[in-house]
Amino acid sequence: MNLFKIIADIEKADPEVGERYSFYSRRSLLKFGSNLAAAGIPTFMAATLNKAMAQSTTPSQKAIDVANFALTLEYLEDDFYKMGLAAANLIPAADRTVISQISKHETAHVNLLKAALAAGAVAKPTFKFPAGTFTTYATFLATARALEDTGVQAYKGQAGELINDKAILLTALQIHSVEARHASEIRRMLGMKGWVSDTTQTTFTQGGVNLKNLNTGKSDDALREAFDEPLTKDQVLAIAKPFL
Question: Closest by alpha carbon to 221, among 243, 200, 191?
Answer without folding.
Answer: 200
